[in-house]
Design the sequence.
């Protein structure tokens, strides 16, 4: 069984406006760490299982920095 790397309060967030992914705990004061998105409707909070299984470059970078 794979260990889930990211659990609350370290939620992985994906901004649908700029397609950026980041750890929510690093940018709690902003909806998006990369753009001026202030609409939660344009934001996805990934489930820990989704993040653990994702192999995109952004998630891979987060996993490497998370360790």
Sequence:
């Amino acid at each position: 069984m794979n260990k889930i790397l990211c659990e609350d309060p370290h939620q992985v967030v994906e901004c649908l406006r700029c397609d950026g992914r980041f750890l929510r705990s690093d940018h709690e004061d902003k909806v998006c760490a990369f753009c001026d998105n202030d609409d939660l409707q344009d934001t996805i909070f990934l489930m820990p299982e989704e993040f653990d299984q994702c192999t995109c470059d952004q998630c891979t970078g987060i996993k490497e920095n998370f360790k």
